Amino acid sequence: MSNLFRSLPSMDALLTALAHPEQAGPGTPAASEQTARPYQADLAALPRPLLRDLVNAFLDQCRGAIRAGTITDAAALSTQALLPALAAHVLRAARPHFRRVLNATGVVIHTNLGRSLLAEEATAAVAEACANYSNLEFDLATGERGSRYSHVEELLCKVTGAEAGLVVNNNAAAVLLVLDTLCKGGEVVVSRGQLVEIGGSFRIPEVMEKSGAVLREVGATNRTHLRDYENAINERTVALLKVHTSNYRITGFHKEVGLAELVALGRARNLPVIEDLGSGSFLDFTPWGLHGEPTVREVVADGADVVSFSGDKVLGGPQAGLIVGRREIIARIKRNPLNRALRIDKMTLAALEATLRLYLDPELARRKVPTLRMMTAPADELARRARKLANRLRTALGDAATIGLAPGVSRVGGGSFPERDLPTTLVSVAPAGCSATALKERLLDTDPPLVGRLEDDTFRLDPRTLDDTEFPPAAAALAQALGLPGAQDAARPGKRAPRARRG
């Protein structure tokens, strides 16, 4: 064993071999296979201390294999023999922790996978903002300091019909800021059926408590009447709050007070009406089978004094909390010192402005904003794209898996349109050499990872959330997970993966 330890190459020898694999020795795996892949460029971009740490970790693994008796031949410890495994280890371990994922789940606004994708116009605006100085808080008309909110406020008012607007870093922050500004120390009347909790244990009562407002819940879980609000109002009441239950539905014996009724009561009692709209839809999705969600413009038109909603849900923009409403109230919210702690940065502003500009033409927004495009994709188009994906997978995977098509449903996600199904066509993958569950787990380790769903003992992909340009890397990920040789090239146009034998 001691001789085996002495046979291990030095750190410097392995670092040199990684930088110059052609010098590892003619006819070796390092010279024939590794030099065919231009991984040196990937390694050259790594900081030297990180590369040394990764090589050292690999050497520790080798020492562990020697102690365990897994390695018994000194020839297996030569630089030439170790280089392929070393390169694979370094490239794998050096991958960024935060990286791209292929979403084949069919959940359009997938909170765990980053919610909405940005339109090309928005990503271009972000790149421009990041690469250059900008007029973030500089008024080009006067040459003096300006307001960052001026870049989007006019657009926000145009597309919502509100008098004024403000943007903070998410909708939870928006609700907190509104309550802190208007309701601190006073009572806020809320229907008991609207005391929602969303992902991450975000609860309306707790946010209200943090803002300094006092919750006054009224009605029952399933039924609240206007008289419940009227009876709760007293000298300590400062606002009426309506929370749109966008992430669940109550059906059956149910009643809630409409916004118009609540606004009329607020006007009569001189109380502002606040609506937390959650997802913040700008379009009516009824033609696509998604109904029951009010648009922001409708809520503003119904007279809500303040409305807040998310930017990265149905709007299809960056993470942000948008606040619109009456001019004098928005002005008060802007002056709240907490606003500075919750403000958005230049990248969010750039992406949001570009997204809102698309909404000046709703049909243009539907075509350009990925979230809207996926939500409104026709069933026949999805069936066609599913057939296209299935054909590619059959070519890439050969006998390693059985590929089929099955009817299924997609979901909007992000707490939007709960229990509303979108018809789709799923591509099913039944692997020959492992279970569908094992395949799903292996796909989490591919580059990029492929996330789908399990149904009827098969791994399934929904083309609704998988762009045509992502079909090749999805096929390559499946080939890699199934252990096919040449997996990285398996899904390139004109390439056919070697056929794997069953078993």
From TrEMBL:
GO terms for molecular function: L-seryl-tRNA(Sec) selenium transferase activity. Converts seryl-tRNA(Sec) to selenocysteinyl-tRNA(Sec) required for selenoprotein biosynthesis. Pathway: Aminoacyl-tRNA biosynthesis; selenocysteinyl-tRNA(Sec) biosynthesis; selenocysteinyl-tRNA(Sec) from L-seryl-tRNA(Sec) (bacterial route): step 1/1. It is an enzyme of class 2 (transferase). InterPro entries: PyrdxlP-dep_Trfase (IPR015424), PyrdxlP-dep_Trfase_major (IPR015421), SelA-like (IPR018319), SelA_trans (IPR004534), SelA_trans_N_dom (IPR025862). The modification N6-(pyridoxal phosphate)lysine is found at K313. It catalyses: L-seryl-tRNA(Sec) + selenophosphate + H(+) = L-selenocysteinyl-tRNA(Sec) + phosphate. It is found in: Cytoplasm. Keywords: Cytoplasm, Protein biosynthesis, Pyridoxal phosphate, Selenium, Transferase. Its cofactor is pyridoxal 5'-phosphate. Residues 493-503 have a biased composition (Basic residues). Residues 483-503 are annotated as: Disordered. Residues 5-63 form the L-seryl-tRNA selenium transferase N-terminal domain. Its EC number is 2.9.1.1. HAMAP family: SelA. Belongs to the SelA family. The keyword Protein biosynthesis applies. This is L-seryl-tRNA(Sec) selenium transferase.
